[in-house]
Amino acid sequence: MRILVIFCHPVPESFGAALKDTVMKALAESGNETRLIDLYAEGFNPVMGCEERRCYNEMQKDQHPAPDHAEHLAWAEGLVFVYPTWWYGLPAMLKGWLDRVWTPEITFAISPDTKRITPLMTHIRKLGVVTTCGAPRWWSYVVGHPGKRTLLRGMRALFAKRCKTLFLAHYLMDVSTPQSRQNFLERVDRRMRRF
């Protein structure tokens, strides 16, 4: 399977980077073909400017602001997001990537007649999220787990109807221990090998 991993963390020696490395290794050793987008490492600009927003709904493929990223999305059969959950949601960099890369004609189409959205990412059959959360599991669910809902419900609606999902979170990250982090890395390794 062709799997695109989207990594979002500003610190290259972070636990998030260890998670990304674990994901990439497990996927590759399981026979998958992988590509990595490391948003901070490449200096991705998450800010949508005025003119980009003005033409967003009518944007054509040849006007895409990040054509290499659009090509990665077209190539992939599976997506895995690796990021820290900050304030219960996606980091601003990752949200900006969704805003700027997931454009009409690439990920969805809007009918001029019915105004309905048609998914254009039906080649995506698997979607995974690997994240860390400072809050405990119960509190993350009390506040609605916004980041999880954005990706596993909102964005997943653009994928294949039977797209399988996986969500792995290390809760209480701010008070984690070397053992809890090691246990989570091992869990991620096991689950990604079966992804």
Please characterize this protein's 3D structure:
This protein has helices spanning 15-29, 50-54, 67-75, 92-101, 137-142, 146-154, 178-193, and strands spanning 2-7, 33-38, 78-85, 108-110, 117-119, 126-133, 164-170. The chain is an alpha/beta fold and 195 residues long. It has a single domain, classed as 3-Layer(aba) Sandwich (Rossmann fold). Strands 2-1-3-6-7 form a 5-stranded parallel beta sheet, with helices on both faces. Helix 1 runs parallel beside helix 7 (178-193). It starts with a strand and ends with a helix. The mean pLDDT is 94.
Question: How are the secondary structure elements laid out?
Answer:
Layout: E1 2-7, H1 15-29, E2 33-38, H2 50-54, H3 67-75, E3 78-85, H4 92-101, E4 108-110, E5 117-119, E6 126-133, H5 137-142, H6 146-154, E7 164-170, H7 178-193
Parallel strand pairs: 1-2, 1-3, 3-6, 6-7
Antiparallel strand pairs: 4-5
Helix pairs in contact: 1-7
Number of domains: 1
Q: Which outline best applies?
A: globular
How large is the share of residues in beta strands?
15-25%
Looking at CATH, the homologous superfamily is Flavodoxin domain
CATH topology label: Rossmann fold
* SSE topology string: EHEHHEHEEEHHEH
Rounded to an integer in angstroms, the radius of gyration calculated over CA atoms is 17 Å
Helix content: 25-40%
Structural class: alpha/beta
Describe the oligomeric state of these chains in a short phrase: single chain
Overall pLDDT metric: 94
Which CATH class applies here?
A: Alpha Beta
Total of DSSP H or I helical runs spanning 4+ residues? 7
Uncertain ranges? none
CATH architecture call:
3-Layer(aba) Sandwich
How many DSSP E strands?
7
* Biggest sheet record: 5 strands, parallel
State the strand order across the main sheet.
2-1-3-6-7
What is the distance, rounded to the nearest whole angstrom, between the alpha carbons of the first and last residues?
10 Å
